[in-house]
Amino acid sequence: MKTKIIRNSAKCHNCNTEIESQHRWDYVSCPCLNISVDGGLDYIRRSAKHIELYEDTSIVVQLPEKEKKP
């Protein structure tokens, strides 16, 4: 099943900041540099120093499959 990214974001629990990548090569880091998000609406990529200190707040929806005609 195909998916569509509506929002590419994450929240850092270390500095309590939510960051969002808005376009393909928009690499964004939180102020404490614990987490970074990248990819905008094209792909989701995360970097984290402490993985347990962030929450993924992205919104991704599944698209219905097209019916094949006989």
Taken in chain order, the helices and strands follow as EEEEEEE
Our count of helices gives: 0
How many domains? The number is: 1
Give the CA-based shape.
elongated
Structural class: mainly beta
Characterize the structure shown.
With 70 residues, the protein is mainly β. The chain has one domain. It is built from no helices and 7 strands. The strands form 2 sheets. Strands 1, 2, 6 and 7 form a 4-stranded antiparallel β-sheet that branches. A 3-stranded antiparallel β-sheet has the order 3-4-5, with no helix packed on it. The radius of gyration is 15 Å and the shape is elongated. It starts with a strand and ends in an 8-residue tail after the last strand.
Task: Write out key terms for the chains shown.
70 residues, mainly beta, four-stranded antiparallel beta sheet, elongated
